[in-house]
Write a structure and sequence with these properties.
Residues 7-121 form the VOC domain. This protein has 126 residues and is α/β, with parallel strands linked by helices. The protein has helices at residues 18-29, 78-87; strands at 11-15, 34-36, 39-42, 52-56, 69-73, 91-100, 103-109, 115-120. The radius of gyration is 16 Å and the shape is globular.
């Protein structure tokens, strides 16, 4: 049996202003931006962190966002984290609190309108 070890290398986003968008996400993740030409790289922060890469838009942004980030925070910390992200420039879109018993989340938009979610999962019952 072949074992595949695959991990997420980086999340790549095209941006109207890569530096501004990277600055927002650096505030979210705690990463130090590493600019290079017209692009900006954010390295992963800590175990389980993820890298992000921002580059200039190459085409018009689609009206429908086909994918988005789901960020996870400890149970009962979602509201405080959402408030922190809004203070950084994120925009509240909606909450989903009762649809699924295993997760609650808030959907936000970053400073360029890209949607992302902040989710919390209740502790497993023993």
């Amino acid at each position: 049996m072949t074992t595949h070890q695959i991990s997420l290398g980086a999340i790549n986003l095209e941006a109207q202003n890569p530096t501004t968008l990277a600055k927002f996400w650096a505030s979210v993740t705690g990463a130090m931006p590493s600019p290079g030409g017209n692009s900006v790289y954010l390295p992963p922060v800590g175990p389980g962190g993820f890298a992000m890469f921002f580059q200039p838009l190459t085409a018009k942004r689609p009206e429908h966002q086909a994918s988005h980030l789901d960020l996870t925070v400890p149970w009962e910390s979602r509201q405080a984290e959402v408030a922190r992200l809004i203070s950084l420039g994120a925009v509240f879109e909606w909450d989903v609190l009762d649809e699924y018993p295993h997760v609650q989340w808030t959907t936000l938009a970053d400073v360029e309108g890209n949607l992302f979610c902040v989710a919390e999962h209740p502790p497993a019952e023993h």
